[in-house]
Amino acid sequence: MENRIYDEKNDLWYEKQGDYFIPCLSLPEEENKPVGIWGQRHLRYIRQHKRVFYANLLTSCKLNSYLADVDAQSENLFCRLVKQLAEKEGITETLKAEDQMLWVQRMNAVRETATEIVNNDLICV
Predict the structure, then answer these.
(1) For the chain, which residues score pLDDT lower than 50?
(2) What does the alpha-carbon distance between residue 24 and residue 61 come to, in Å, rounded to a whole number?
(3) What pLDDT score was predicted for residue 91?
(4) Which pTM was predicted?
(5) Contact indicator for 42, 10 with CB cutoff of 8 Å
């Protein structure tokens, strides 16, 4: 008897392993895009709070590309917010030249504000 058979009812190949025929299944290849810190944070959130959504992305082989997209959107929003908030607060290069510690304090506050906005708008939704 053959080790592989084809079932026309469900269009699957089966391979004999021991006494049983096991379907020959494989997942499609997923693009391997780099996922940054924002994507990793979103992954942690959906693993804990949106398990069905996470399972659907994982089984459809779309998790990595989805996380890479979320990461790119979050990074763009973060950079744009930091620039806008720094302009709004009056944080300039002249301040950096005159009082570096004050500039660092104010930029850290701006970055923390931008981080919270990104977390609330894109990461934890």
Answers:
(1) none
(2) 18
(3) 94
(4) 0.76
(5) no
